[in-house]
Specification:
The complex is a heterodimer of chains A (118) and B (110). Chain A contains 1 helix and 11 strands; from the N terminus they run βββββββββαββ. Chain A is mainly β. In chain B, 0% of the residues lie in helices and 57% in strands. The chains are: A mainly beta (118), B mainly beta (110).
């Protein structure tokens, strides 16, 4: 199964700790997106990356959040000094390309990482 | 300011009947419209899409209708089955990627 792989599935952190969420895109996909789903909310776009480049981070909180997609290895979403409000499900998606063709056929999502801050 | 609105947080439908999920959008520049289905503890999965040049797309029990003048999108599921119980997200797409609504929780009752 060469789907989008996210790990860990569940992550518990104490307030002030760092959370690192990993995402390996589907084979052949070079575009990665991170979305966050807060309780009772829809999927909110956070960041769009290609290998070694952040293309669009308009949905990322200005502080404590960062993302990378290195030349080798998975994409990482890093949250420093976590707070209770960061508790959410974080989904990664990938696509062959962004824009028209990629959009028509949608993104392939991973199963998500559920972050709980205690 | 929500660009994609799903005004019904939940919908209950009897098994065998038609389920109609609705979605409104504000940006007339969107090129594509999609529906995703999500089960608890899983990621969303792509269900069906439609291009802005069409007004209907059908795939088995699922049909998506697009009314561009009203900026309205709907998903029809007929007949509804127990396995259709899930959260359905409407999404709109253009050159800048996908924008999602908040979702509608569809409950199919036996």
């Amino acid at each position: 199964n060469a789907g989008v792989m996210q790990n860990p599935r569940h992550l518990v952190r104490r307030r002030g700790q760092e959370a690192r969420l990993r995402c390996s895109p589907m084979k052949g996909h070079s575009h990665v997106y991170w979305y966050r789903q807060l309780p009772e909310e829809g999927l909110k776009f956070m960041v769009y990356l290609q290998k070694e480049n952040i293309i669009d981070e308009s949905g990322m909180p200005k502080e404590r959040f960062s993302a990378e997609f290195p030349k080798e290895g998975p994409s990482i979403l890093r949250i420093q000094q976590v707070v209770r409000g960061d508790s959410a499900a974080y989904f990664c998606a990938s696509s062959v390309r962004r824009g028209r063709q990629g959009t028509l056929y949608g993104y392939t999502f991973g199963s998500g990482t559920r972050l709980t801050v205690v | 300011d929500q660009q994609v609105k799903q005004n019904s947080p939940s919908l209950s439908v009897q098994e065998g009947r038609i389920s109609i999920l609705n979605c409104d959008y504000t940006n007339s520049m969107f090129d594509y419209f999609l529906w995703y289905k999500k089960y608890p503890a899983e990621g969303p999965t792509f269900l069906i899409s439609i291009s802005s040049i069409k007004d209907k797309n059908e795939d088995g029990r699922f049909t998506v209708f697009l009314n561009k003048s009203a900026k309205h999108l709907s998903l029809h599921i007929v007949p509804s089955q127990p396995g259709d119980s899930a959260v359905y997200f409407c999404a709109t797409g253009g050159a800048d990627g996908l924008t999602f609504g908040k979702g509608t929780h569809l409950i199919i009752q036996p």
